[in-house]
Amino acid sequence: MPVCNQNMTDLDVTHVQSEAGMAHFAGSGPRGKICGKCIFWGYSTFIGREIINKQTGEVYTPTKYHEGCKKYFILTEKHGKKISPKLLSCKYFEDNKNYKGIDK
After folding, report:
1. What are the residue ranges spanned by the domains of the chain?
2. Whether residue 69 has pLDDT greater than 90
3. Alpha-carbon distance 44 to 24, whole Å?
4. What one-character-per-residue DSSP string does 50-101 give?
5. If residue 45 lies in a helix (H) or strand (E), which one and from where to where?
């Protein structure tokens, strides 16, 4: 779903490809890079309170994986919507050296 109003003039194709929850417009980052290759795509959030494992005595906090933009969360302090890892990268793109997913 595009972020922009498509009835406006001078819309760039990359702006139309942007989705709500992105830190900036799609295509404003390095050429040929996608969100899924960025260190900010996908992050874990804590849910609930600490729990003690009765068998091991280990204390842990349950987490939930979110397929959104962590940079969006850093900038707005709100969790954005899930975004596709295939979107063109934005200006906040930072290369993920541990990337093991799809290329395009």
Report:
1. 1-93
2. yes
3. 21
4. -EE-TTT--EE--EEEEEEEHHHHHHHSS------TTSBP-TT--B-TT--S
5. strand 41-46
